[in-house]
Amino acid sequence: MAFSSSLAFPFPSPPSGTFRSRPTRRFRAGTAGRFLACSSPPPPSDVVVTRERGKNAKLIAALEKHNIQSLELPLIKHVDGPDTDRLPDVLRNDKFDWIIITSPEAATVFLKGWKTAGSPKVRVAVVGAGTARVFDEVSQLDHQSLEVAFSPSKAMGKVLASELPRGSESTCKVLYPASAKASREIQGLSDRGFYVTRLNTYTTVPVEDVEPLTLKLAISAPVVAVASPSALKAWLKLIPKVNNWDNSIACIGETTGSAAKKLGLKSVYYPTTPGLEGWVESILEALRVHKQLKEAPKC
């Protein structure tokens, strides 16, 4: 389960002739990643969750159901991209057959620009259920202006690029607001005759200040859960080479899993279908293998 709160408060003295044990204080990380209270060494963690602060709650809750203890260590943060301010003007001044959104963060940034532009009518194609959920509230309230109309058979950009339907128009215009670090997979639509306008509306940067004790606990955890190649790279920069870290990486999907292998990591787990449920299963599998190796007799 996730680290739970609790600073200790004074307890009243028990009545004469009775005994009352004082509850053990537990451990939690504060907003800056520092430990607020601890009367004894914190318990070891099973999994390190690494998304931007405030975006790990669903994964932590899903792992709690399996009695898995998580340590939150955000590895990246999102910042504006070079085209953030251009997005509202582009939406006001041009019409697109499709808006392509490939991540929850891209969806959040797009919705902000879309509202600034006056909520023009758009048709959206999304990659992944998590991305689609970001649009749920808006599409229900204003379904005439924003329609989530397509999702590929597999939550990958290259699959969307091969499956996105096009009308009978001679040209089919696509707007692709994305991370500046996103691959060019979606731009493969150009090979199918789509005209693609890409805007780099945000980017990711590594978190620079990590509390030493938090990092020490993270390095000792059997599994690190990551949701992007950027998080992988940030993790590798944090690990001192002298530790020879060789525990497991559990990735949200194939794209991040493939990046982990390319970066030289050996114990890499990821689901065939990206998403929270598959990610949790990959984490559980990594923990099962870790336990088996730990319990195996030494030769």
Explained architecture:
The chain has about 300 residues and is α/β, with parallel strands linked by helices. It is about 30% helix and about 20% strand. It is built from 10 helices and 11 strands. It has helices spanning about 55-65, 85-95, 105-115, 130-135, 135-140, 155-165, 210-220, 230-240, 255-260, 275-295, and strands at about 45-50, 70, 75-80, 100, 120-125, 145-150, 170-180, 195-205, 225, 250, 270. The strands form 2 sheets. Strands 3-8-7-4-5-6 form a 6-stranded mixed sheet. It has a 5-stranded parallel sheet with strand order 2-1-9-10-11, sandwiched between helices. Helix 8 (about 230-240) links the parallel strand 9 and strand 10. The radius of gyration is 23 Å and the shape is elongated. It starts with about 45 loop residues before the first strand and ends with a helix.
Considering the chains and any ligands shown, give keywords for the structure.
299 residues; alpha/beta; five-stranded parallel beta sheet; 10 helices; 19% strand; elongated; disordered N terminus
